[in-house]
Amino acid sequence: MTVPLLAWVATLGSLLALLVLDWMVAGRRRTPIGIKLAGTWTVVYVGAAVVFALVLLVARDGDSAARFTTAYVVEESLSVDNLFVFVLVLSSFAVPKLQEQRALLYGVVGALVLRAVVIAGGVAVLDALEWVIYLFGAFLIVTGFRLAVGGEAEPEVANNRLVRLTQRLLPTTDRYDEGRLTSRVDERRVFTPLAIVMVALAVTNVLFAVDSIPAVFGVTRDPFLIVTANAFALVGLRSLYFLLAGAVQRLTYLNYGLAAILAFVGAKMILESVVVLPTWLSLGVIGGLLGVTIVASLTLGNPGTDSRETVSDPN
What we know:
Helix content: 55-70%
Number of domains: 1
Shape: globular
Radius of gyration: 20 Å
Oligomer: single chain
C-alpha cells in the first residue's frame, strides 16, 4: 500500500517534536534523570505508539494496526538488550552522569538514521529476491538457538572500526565540555568525546539490531510500518534506560524469552507460504512469550546468576 508523503512527514515529524520536547524537559536537567521522570516519559512514548496504532486502525484497517503493534512489541522486546549496550558504551568512554541523557539522545537519533538506511536496503532486497526471506528465517532460528545456549557476545566499542576511523579522521579532545559535541582548544575547533560516543551508540545499536530488523520483516513487508515500529521503539529507549538500568538485571530469563520470539518469527517466515498465521495470533504468541519471561524472571530468577556485567542504578 502506497503511503502518502504527508503521512510520512506527519508521523516522523511528530516523533521528532516529541524528542525535542523530551530534550527541553529532561535533557537540560542539571541533575541525573530519576526513576519517576523516566517512568513518566516511558509512559508517554508507549502511549504515543498506542495512539499511532489507533490512527492506523481508523485511517487504514485493523490488520495494519495489528501488524504495527506486533512489530513494535518485537522491536521493543528485542531492544531491551540495547540497555546493556548503552551501559557498555557509556562506561567504556567514562561519560559523566550528567551527560548520559544527552549522549543517549544523540545516539538514538543517529541510530534512527542508520536503521532507516538498513531497512530500505532490506526491503529492496526482499522485493528483488523473494527467497531471501527464507535466509532471514533460518538466521533468526540460529540466532535464537545461540542466544538461548550461550547468550549474546558483547559488541566491541572502543575497538569498533568506525569509531576508530572517526577518532583518526576528526580532531578530538579528551575533555567533555558540558555536553557539547564540539569545543575550542587553542583556537582550534575540535570534537569532544561525546561526538565519538554518539557514533559508538548509533553503530553498536544498529549492529545489535541485526536480529530485530529481520524479525520485523517476518511480521510485515510494509516499509511504513517497519520504519515507524523501529522509530517508536527507538525513541523510547532513552527513558527506558534510566527506568530499567537497575531493574533489568532481574530479568534473568530474558535471553530465553527473546530466543523463543526469534525462533517463532523465523519459523513463521520460513513457513509463511504453507501456513499463514493471523496477525492477532502472532501478536498473542509474542506477547505471551515476553510476559512469561518477565513473570518467570521476577518470581523464579536469581539476580546473582546473571553472567553479564552488573548495571548500577544511574540514580
